[in-house]
Automatic annotation (TrEMBL):
Annotated GO MF terms: ATP binding; glycine-tRNA ligase activity
Keyword terms: Aminoacyl-tRNA synthetase, ATP-binding, Cytoplasm, Ligase, Nucleotide-binding, Protein biosynthesis
Localisation per UniProt entry: Cytoplasm
Catalytic activity as recorded in UniProt: tRNA(Gly) + glycine + ATP = glycyl-tRNA(Gly) + AMP + diphosphate
Keyword Cell membrane belongs to the record: no
Enzyme Commission number: 6.1.1.14
Name of the protein: Glycine--tRNA ligase beta subunit
Principal place of residence: cytoplasm
HAMAP family the UniProt entry points to: Gly_tRNA_synth_beta
Amino acid sequence: MTKNYLLEIGLEEMPAHVVTKSVNQFAQRAEKFLKENRISFDSIEKFSTPRRLTIFVKGIAEKQTDIDVKAKGPSKKIAQDADGNWTKAAQGFARGQGMTPDDIFFEELKGVEYAYIQKHEDGQKVETVLSHMDEVIKAITFPTRMRWGSYDFEYIRPIHWLVSLLDTEEVPVKILDITSGRMTRGHRFLGEDVEIDDANNYVEKLKSQFVIVDAKERKQIISDQISKIATDNNWDIDVDPDLLEEVNNLVEFPTTFYGSFDKKYLEIPEEVLITSMKDNQRYFYVRDQAGKLAPYFIGVRNGNSEHIENVIRGNEKVLVARLEDADFFFKEDQKKSIADYVEKLKTVNFHVKIGTMYEKMARVHQIAEHLAKLFKLDATETKDLLRASDIYKFDLVTSMVDEFPELQGVMGEKYAEIMGETKAVAQAIREHYMPISAEGALPASKVGAALAIADKIDSLVTFYAVDLIPSGSNDPYALRRQAYGIVRILDHYQWSMNLEDLQDYLKANLTVPAKLDLGKNEKAINEFMIDRVRQLLNQKGIRNDIVDAVASGSNVDPIAMIDVAEVLQKHVADDDFKVVMEALGRIVNLSKKAKFGYSDDLSVDDNLFENPSESQLKEQVAKVNDDNAEDLFKQLAALRPVIDSYFDENMIMAKDEKVKNNRLTQLVIANHLIANLGDLSKIVTK
């Protein structure tokens, strides 16, 4: 007969962003604990509020599964002496298994006899196992932890109570000085402490004390209430899922309401208004049916609708105070010019080891000038890019961004337009931060994309120049995200950028102080960028062996690497893919025997040819064009019959040194083309 088990951790209010992750982790760790302890169950339900993390294990077995164990001990020659007496090793083995040496028997394993003991273990009662659930509670990890009282124990917030029930029976679980019982706490203001008589009544008992413990149910209530407000007022409300999740984890008994603010504040850029409402106050903003921002907001109260008018007035007062500040900053910021703000950047550090933000913009201007030519931007795009590179950080020293840091770039775009910059320049100022997350949106304009790459390249090479290099999970300057952003933008716009050529240009042309050695970690930067190409290829679903082949090749142009990987992935199912790879692989492997590498002046002497296949290979290789990955693959694949004939007719390592080197030269030249497809030895063809 199965039962249901309830375990609730009662805490002080947790930060909203940890609640869902923590209860998920709680359930996962509980599942692992039960399986490791041979306790079967049907499923685990999760409940959570800001003040509690709860699991409800349905259909839990009454006891552990019985097991028969055959334990292996020392070899026979160690277990017994020459007279057949049990040694201390054998006695210790038996004692460790709770048995005696008389229970030992021998079996042969790989030609050696070993001591074994066969024993039967009866499963313990589930209550005994569940009394150790404190191990699960303590194992939960959090992004931040705190101590309380005189304890060394750390947790997300102080634990105040525990409930541990197997149906109606209490199962004692203890943490610090808190022993579990059946008493839980209702809503902080509306409810009272309540006794859970039966684990199966948990949800309803708490609901009677104004706690909706089911997070999914709370979320649906909030969504339904917002929908009703929108319908009643003919509004369009963007229910952002992240904000809904956050608000849901701030309340135990939700009541949704709406408030208003003066229309005059709509003159402030709507991004500022939305930030004030959404990010600062956790409100949902409102639009009318024409899509324009309306002077209303939607809030969620942790309580019932009693005295809701007072709640609305209080929230309106708080929001208006923030909007007053925003209005003041918006007007004050416009009293200065962009040039004034750029001048102030001379005193703002980008990083103390690297220099000021003003110096960073100067470097980015130089990088942008190079990229404009590399990416073949037209004259207007180039002009806008260079202008943007001269000013793109100016909004960092405005009052608005000082108050609302999350608006950097956004306010730069707004102020740039107001102060007479072209739309392309203004847009690039906002877009240079993109993507703001690993898979975030990319710049929509070429100017913004080029500026984003230039800015990220500067960050990458300057941080590496002063040895501030990501290691393990440590990446305080988000260089992985920035490098991945470069790769994604290059892929999106199909812009070619050879990493070695770029670094050669930077070393030769970028104006940097002596303390910045741009050549110091050049190889490490290339490897770092190639790892980001790997990341993108994995995201695209490219086979692991193909990713390894491309990443290990001679090409260090992200776009060329991506193109080759996609071509190989496309052709991997071809009927002749295996034989093509084998033929090309023979050239790759044998070319390694040459004591010389590829160079442009490497030439083959026709007078040393002994067989027609040598001429055929030379002629066919000379026709191969490596400008396009698809064409390159097809042309190299078409060489297979010629390659097979070449190896059938010729001994590469001929006794005649001149003939041998001539043939190796042919292979080195061919391998130079093949290398554009990566290290083909890593391709799995079985």
